[in-house]
Design goal:
Chain lengths: ~300, ~110
C-alpha cells in the first residue's frame, strides 16, 4: 500500500470508530489527526517510505484513539460480544480485510483526500466535506450527496405565502435545513416567501411572545426567496445551504453549519459586521461603532462568507 | 507490587498531566498538538499522541482551551492551535495552588 492509502485507511477506520459523535465533530478530529500525521511524517528521520508506518504506529490503533475520544466525552464504548467460534472471527476478518484492500487500492477513498472546504472563487464553486456538499453558483445549484437543491427554477412545487407583520413582532426566526435561501427587504410591512420545494409542504408560521418563526426546516431541498420588512431583526439558523442576502435592512444574525453566505450591502447604510468562519474563508467585513450601524452577525462552521 | 504501582501512576498522572498541559500552553501562549508533544518529550514527560488529542478536545469542550485553525501559507495544511481561555487561566491558577499545597504537604510529612 502506498502512503496515501495507508493514511486514508487509518482515517476512515478512525471515522468509523467515532460514529457516536456528530459528523462535524468527526470531521474536525479527522482533520486534526491528518494534520498531525503530515507534520510528524515530515519530522521523521530514517527511511521516508517507512515514516507513515511509524507515525501511525505512534498514534495507536484507530480503535484505541477513538475510544479515548469517546471516553473523554463520557461515551461508554460498546464492547463487541463474542459470537461463534474463532474460525468465524478469522473468516470475517479475512473477508473484510480482503475487500477492504481491494476497495482502498481501487478507490482510495476520495472523500478524505480533499480538504474540509475547497473554494474556487473564479468558478463560483465551493466543495464542503470532500465534495459531500457542492455549491455551484454558475449553474445555480446546491448538491448534497446525491440530492439536488434546484436553485435554477424548473422542477419542484411552488409554495408561496405572506404574513402581515403585527406590532408585537420583534424578531423573525428562519430555521432551514438544506436550502438555497435569498433574503431581501420587503416593500411593505409583510413578510413574503416564494419557495420551490421537493414536495408540497407549506412552511410553518408561528408567533410566540414577539418572535415570529418561519420554519423552512421541513421543506427539504427548498429554494426560497424571503422578503422581510425594513428594520425587523432576523435570525437564520441553517444546516446546509447557500444564502444570498440583498441589502440587509435590519439587524441580522445568521448561523450556518455548511455552505456559503453572500452579502450585498446597501451603500446608503452603515453596518457593524461580526463575521466568523471556522473552516473556510471570508471577505473583510468592517466593524463599526456608529450608533446607527446595523448589526450583522454571521457564523459559518464550514464554508465561505462573501461581500459584494 | 509492580502492577499496583502502574495503576497508582495512571491515577496520579491524569490530573498532573492536565496541569502540565495548561502550564505549557500558558507559557507558550498558543500551541498545536505536535508542538506540545515535542515540548513534553523534551521535558521527559512522555505522552502518546493518541492520548493528547482526545484530552485537548475534552479540555476545549470544557471551555478551558480555545482552538483556531490556521494555515501557515496557501499551500500548507491547516494546524489547530490551542490557547487558554479566561476560564482556563482561572482554573489553572486554582489547580496550581492545589498542586503546590499537595507537594508541600508531602514534603512536610517526609521531614
Amino acid at each position: 500500500m502506498n502512503r496515501e492509502v495507508k493514511l486514508e485507511h487509518y482515517l476512515l477506520q478512525l471515522d468509523r470508530e467515532l460514529k457516536p459523535l456528530p459528523v462535524s465533530r468527526r470531521a474536525e478530529i479527522i482533520t486534526e489527526i491528518k494534520a498531525h500525521v503530515i507534520d510528524a511524517e515530515a519530522k521523521m528521520t530514517g527511511d521516508p517510505e517507512r515514516a507513515i508506518d511509524r507515525v501511525l504506529e505512534d498514534l495507536g490503533s484507530p480503535k484505541m484513539v477513538a475510544h479515548k475520544y469517546l471516553a473523554e466525552k463520557g461515551i461508554a464504548v460498546e464492547r463487541p460480544r463474542r459470537r461463534g467460534g474463532a474460525w468465524f472471527k478469522w473468516l470475517a476478518i479475512g473477508t473484510v480485510a480482503f475487500f477492504g484492500l481491494v476497495f482502498f487500492a481501487g478507490m482510495s477513498a476520495i472523500w478524505y483526500f480533499s480538504p474540509l472546504v475547497k473554494i474556487d472563487d473564479e468558478k463560483g464553486r465551493i466543495l464542503l466535506l470532500g465534495g459531500l456538499i457542492d455549491v455551484n453558483e454558475k449553474i445555480g445549484q446546491v448538491k448534497i450527496g446525491d440530492l439536488l437543491v434546484n436553485a435554477g427554477g424548473g422542477d419542484g412545487v411552488e409554495v408561496k405565502g405572506e404574513e402581515t407583520l403585527t406590532g408585537s413582532v420583534r424578531v423573525l426566526k428562519i430555521p432551514f435545513n438544506t436550502a438555497k435561501l435569498d433574503l431581501s427587504v420587503a416593500a411593505g410591512r409583510k413578510i413574503t416567501w416564494d419557495c420551490k420545494a421537493a414536495s408540497q409542504t407549506a412552511p410553518e408560521v408561528a408567533v410566540v411572545a414577539g418572535v415570529m418563526t418561519l420554519n423552512l426546516d421541513k421543506l427539504n431541498l427548498v429554494k426560497c426567496a424571503v422578503a422581510v420588512p425594513l428594520g425587523l431583526a432576523t435570525e437564520v439558523r441553517g444546516v446546509n445551504g447557500h444564502m444570498d442576502i440583498e441589502k440587509p435592512g435590519g439587524p441580522l444574525d445568521i448561523a450556518l453549519d455548511n455552505g456559503k453566505v453572500n452579502i450585498k450591502t446597501d451603500p446608503a447604510r452603515t453596518y457593524d459586521f461580526e463575521v466568523k468562519v471556522k473552516n473556510g474563508l471570508k471577505d473583510f467585513f468592517p466593524r463599526s461603532a456608529a450608533k446607527n450601524a446595523l448589526k450583522v452577525k454571521v457564523n459559518v462552521i464550514n464554508g465561505l462568507v462573501k461581500k459584494e | 507490587m509492580q502492577l499496583d504501582l502502574d495503576n497508582w501512576r495512571v491515577q496520579v498522572k491524569k490530573g498532573y498531566l492536565e496541569l502540565c498541559l495548561l502550564l505549557l500552553i500558558r507559557q507558550q501562549k498558543r500551541m498545536y498538538g505536535l508542538e506540545i508533544l515535542e515540548k513534553l518529550a523534551s521535558l521527559e514527560l512522555t505522552l502518546k499522541e493518541g492520548t493528547l488529542y482526545p484530552l485537548l478536545s475534552r479540555m476545549t469542550g470544557d471551555g478551558l482551551l480555545s482552538s483556531t485553525w490556521e494555515t501557515a501559507n496557501l499551500k500548507g495544511h491547516p494546524r489547530k492551535f490551542y490557547a487558554l481561555t479566561k476560564k482556563g487561566v482561572q482554573s489553572l491558577n486554582e489547580m496550581e495552588d492545589e498542586f503546590l499545597r499537595m507537594t508541600d504537604l508531602v514534603s512536610k510529612i517526609r521531614k
